[in-house]
Design brief:
Blueprint (H helix, E strand, L loop, with lengths): L1 H22 L5 H21 L3 H24 L1
Helix pairs in contact: 1-2, 2-3
Length: about 80
């Protein structure tokens, strides 16, 4: 289940990033950061379940930072 969510969030992040790069429309960047933060959350859960706790903690910290950047981007718009 976590693997499927990770694939979905990775595809959504990649799709939004490519769309922003091709069209020079950067209004979707907060959405891209939101999907990236959810990707990092699923990666952290997966690493934690595999007993790699250090990488899981780093993924959770990166999740929190990217989520903050995403919300900050939503507040600016």
């Amino acid at each position: 289940m976590v693997f499927v969510l990770r694939l979905i969030f990775a595809a959504a992040t990649t799709g939004l990033a490519l769309y922003s790069l091709i069209t020079d429309n950067y209004g979707l960047m907060p959405w891209m950061f939101l999907t990236m933060s959810l990707l990092l959350l699923t990666m952290g859960i997966d690493e934690y379940l595999k007993d790699r706790k250090v990488f899981g903690v780093f993924s959770f910290l990166a999740f929190a930072f990217v989520l903050y950047v995403s919300f900050d981007g939503f507040m600016i718009l």
